[in-house]
Amino acid sequence: MSDQVSAVGDGFAARHGRRPDGVWSAPGRVNLIGEHTDYNRGFVLPFAIDRRTVAAVGVCDDRVLRVSSTFTEEEVSLAIDDLSPGAMQGWSAYVLGVAWALSDEGHDLSSAPGLDILIDSRVPVGAGLSSSAAIECAVAVALNDLWDLNLSPLDLARIGRIAENRAVGAPTGLLDQAASMLGREDHGVFLDCDTEEAEPVALHLREEGLEILVMDSRVEHEHATGGYRDRRDSCEKGAAALGVSTLRELSEDDLDRASAALDEETFRRVRHIVTENARVVDTVRTLGDSGPRAIGALLDASQASMRDDFEITVPEIDLACATAVENGAIGARMTGGGFGGSAIALVPADARSDIGSAVTSALASAGLREPHLFTVTPSEGARRDI
Ligand code: ADP
Ligand code: MG
Questions:
Q1: CATH number at residue 308
Q2: Tens digits of per-residue pLDDT, 221-231?
Q3: Measuring from atom 27 of ligand 1, which residue has the nearest CA?
Q4: Distance of CA 64 to CAs 32, 76, 112, Å?
Q5: Which domain holds residue 251?
Q6: Within 244-351, where are the H helices?
Q7: Average pLDDT over residues 75-103
């Protein structure tokens, strides 16, 4: 049992005067490759990380959900019969939204008992590591067990996504929740966002002596939401002009036709999605055939495509990636929605600290904000801990 799990169990006992009936947890995630492809019904390859959100839960003899978090003093209560997106605000929507999504998807909660839920998270908020999916998935596995729902991990990921889209109001794809639910140690989750089929892919990082260095730029752009929506619009515009319902349907063979039919900017947006889908598939194949040391060029090409074609990177991220690669990283790319956030570098473990120092001093010399650097390990997805 981790120290986090036992501390949350103790925190629950101090707050509620009894031990929890169980403790569940789910991780944050990093996307190894496949950016902005999810809403174009393409491919992504994220993995679950070794930073988790824990939910300690006790059954009550009423029909009320009482939610608290070590992140805030606020405690929020809502009766199961009163669940609706309008009845939940702020952080508690990530928890209560999962219960609402279950009822909205037709699961019978008429005899479900009330619950006391205490959340504790070690996934940093807003660093692009999906603290939001980690809460949703920890709560989803807990409710699945305590309310005897017998849902599959993929079904629970879909429930988490419904909570995020319709209770919280963030228009995200299934990537985050699929990684958090389905992650495995030293594996990525290869997800087809059209069929929603997911497959574990061995990464072999440990046996190759490799690590993933996260370089959090600590840049949060005001335009992040506007930029994200704008890119979605460009993708829809490109697909409509080319007569397809999603960009997933295009391959690199269609790019000449796309270049003739589209304005220059829309063409570059389309080219990113088409080439990025191909890179995800190539990465999965290369990992299987040749191992992780062979995927560097794909990571670098993805970074260049996000920088030049999709234009979602910031100078801090571009310089961090270039410096990491110049100093011995196998490959480096931005990860997450863009306009700030984090990049990842695939690095030999024994070179990690030199690469990190080079990145920090390059950003300092350029007068840019100091990045926050740390490593993550591909880890197990959502589970019951006690
Ligand atoms: P990200 O998922 O990239 O970390 P989001 O904006 O999607 O960022 O989700 C962050 C939000 O999730 C926070 O603003 C907060 O509402 C909620 N959240 C994250 N961690 C916790 C926590 N430990 N307790 C309560 N709410 C949390
Ligand atoms: Mg999120």
A1: 3.30.70.890
A2: 666 678 888 99
A3: 91
A4: 40, 10, 10
A5: 203-375
A6: 255-261, 264-290, 296-308, 315-326
A7: 96
Q: What is the CATH number of the domain that holds 8?
A: 3.30.230.10
Output the CA angle 226-232-237, nearest 5 degrees.
120
Do 173 and 212 belong together in one domain? no
Q: What is the pLDDT of residue 223?
A: 64
Q: Is 176 a catalytic residue?
A: yes
SS3 content of the chain, % helix, strand, coil (to 5): 45, 25, 30
Span 45-50, mean pLDDT?
Answer: 98
For the Cβ of 180 lying below 6 angstroms from any atom of ligand 1, the answer is: no
d(CA 314, CA 77): 41
Asked if 130 and 264 sit in the same domain, the reply is no
Q: Counting Cβ atoms within 10 Å, is residue 304 exposed (0-12), middle (13-18) or buried (19+)?
A: middle
As a whole number, mean pLDDT of residues 364-373 equals 97
Does residue 371 share a domain with residue 353? yes
Q: Are residues 37 and 144 in the same domain?
A: yes
When pLDDT is averaged across residues 305-334 and rounded to a whole number, the result is 98
User: Does ligand 1 have an atom closer than 6 angstroms to the CB of 303?
Assistant: no
Q: Are residues 79 and 164 in the same domain?
A: yes
Contacts of residue 222, defined as CB under 8 A and 6 or more positions apart, other chains included, come to: none
Whether residues 159 and 215 share a domain: the answer is no
Question: Sorting pLDDT into bands at 50, 70 and 90, what band is 44?
Answer: very high
Q: Residue 188's closest CA among 24, 43, 315? A: 43
Shared-domain flag, residues 127 and 234: no
- Cα radius of gyration (the chain): 21
Spatial CA neighbour of 26 closest among 113, 107, 119 = 119
The ligand 1 atom nearest the CA atom of 170: 7
How many domains does the chain divide into? 2
Strand partners, 78: 65
Q: Using one digit for the tens of pLDDT, what is the confidence trace for 108-153?
A: 999 999 999 999 999 998 788 999 999 999 999 999 999 999 999 9
To the question of pTM greater than 0.90 for the whole model, the response is: yes
With beta carbons less than 8 A apart as the criterion, state whether 172 and 336 touch.
no
Nearest CA to ligand 1 atom 12: 132
Same structural domain, 186 and 262: no
